[in-house]
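Exam revision sheet. Question 4 asks you to relate a sequence to its structure. Input first:
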Amino acid sequence: MLDIVIKKMAKKHIKDVYNVEKNCFSMPWSVQSLSSELENENAIFFVAVLNEQVVGYIGAHCVCRECYIFNIAVLPKYRKQKIATCLLAFFIDRSRKSCDFISLEVRKSNLNAIKLYENFGFKKVGLRKDFYVKPREDAIIMTLYS
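Answer key, structure tokens:
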């Protein structure tokens, strides 16, 4: 296992988080969008850092005891090393007492992510037709109740 440190996202992490976005998603968040989350009192972003480099992150909004995870992403060369598992466990541990549930969407074809979420107790609760573009795909809505 890598010597990963999980930290709250700070301004100094934005360019690295953007790099993760570019390498993981067909429609990445912009540097400006990521930066604006630092000012959002409802945003919770954590980064996984290895040797001073962000190799993954998790981002969510929590409002009225409801948490919605936007992204969990890990640079391709660092996948299959439990980084996403650590990020999700860290996030759940930090938000469970203040949230009644945590919800997210996942590509229907992303079986590895679906399995990860199920291992944490997330349940499939719905489907969003054609939610994703580039490529177009349905999203499964998954929720973890406290």
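Marking note for examiners. The longest helix spans residues 83-95.
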